[in-house]
Amino acid sequence: MTDPVIAFKGLGHAYQPGDWVFRDYSAQVKRGEVFALLGPNGCGKTTLLKILLGAMKPLAGSVHQHVSVGFVPQIFQVSFDYTSLDMVLMGRARKIGLFSTPTQTDRDAAYAALERFGVADLAQRPFHELSGGQRQLVIFARAVVSEAELLLLDEPTSALDLRNQAMILDWITRLSRHDGLTVVFTTHNPQHALAVADNALLMLGQERYVCGTAREALSEDNLKALYCVDIRRVSIGYMGKQVETLVTVFAPGDDEITGREKKNASE
Does 261 fall in a domain? Predict the structure, then answer.
């Protein structure tokens, strides 16, 4: 279970000639693992994900993909009043075939996927009426029902409340550990990557990146270089065991406050 399902070497992309978003990136993702892509806004996370999906061609380097791929975008907008069941059935497109209609087997598979993610009661609800968390679970069901072996997730917890974030992270872990699916996801939350990822790639800019195990890559020094803020790694007791997590240190106006305190002390 350690064969790479997708690998890229010397990968690079630029939207303007000579202005590289990233360049000479190399990594491989093994079967059944969870792989996180992290970086600040504009570093090219979504671009890299689209290249891995095959929706974009890189300007440099190569991608070798050996399995079928399912994609869960960051924002999913629809133009028609599709039901949740319709959205999931679209994931069966490759199996249904062109100009064909879904069979009962396809419908049963779609219902089973919705039921598995706990949203079977939303099958006939218009997709655009669902909450953000409900939409994300329906799109997860759509990706899973396609029987893809590799799932690419673009910021799957974006705009979700803490409860729904925890639920999505739990599903990422289940799909990897219990279903043997390989998951690659982008995130702005390093604590999410530390919680569920086996390996991580930090996009520090152009030709600078760090790639390795999540535990090693998500060090305090690497994260400060990535986000230009202080992030502390702490261990806390939870349900009878020690759990490592990351805490961002926000201290707005700290320099100003310190300066004012010093002035007051001298008066």
Answer: no
Domain annotation covers residue 227: no
Domain that holds residue 37: 4-219
Model pLDDT for residues 117-168, shown as the tens digit of each residue: 999 999 999 998 998 888 888 988 998 898 889 999 999 988 788 988 998 9
What is the residue type of 116?
R
Give domain status of residue 127, yes or no: yes
| CB-CB contact of 144 with 122 (8 Å) | no
Rounded to an integer, the average pLDDT of 40-46 is 92
pLDDT at 198: 97
Nearest residue to 132 via CA among 43, 181, 72: 72
CATH number at residue 31: 3.40.50.300
Q: Are 144 and 109 in contact (CB under 8 A)?
A: no
Cβ-contact 13, 51 below 8 angstroms: yes
State pTM to two decimals. 0.86
State pLDDT tens for residues 114-130. Answer: 999 999 999 999 998 99
In a domain, 211, yes or no: yes
How many domains does the structure of the chain reveal? 1
Q: What's the 3-state SS for the chain?
A: CCCEEEEEEEEEEEEECCEEEEEEEEEEEECCCEEEEECCCCCCHHHHHHHHHCCCCCCEEEEEECCCEEEECCCCCCCCCCEHHHHHHHHHHHHHCCCCCCCHHHHHHHHHHHHHCCCHHHCCCEHHHCCHHHHHHHHHHHHHHCCCCEEEEECCCCCCCHHHHHHHHHHHHHHHHCCCCEEEEEECCHHHHHHHCCEEEEEEEECEEEEEEHHHHCCHHHHHHHHCCCEEEEEEEECCEEEEEEEECCCCCHHHHHHHHHHHHHC
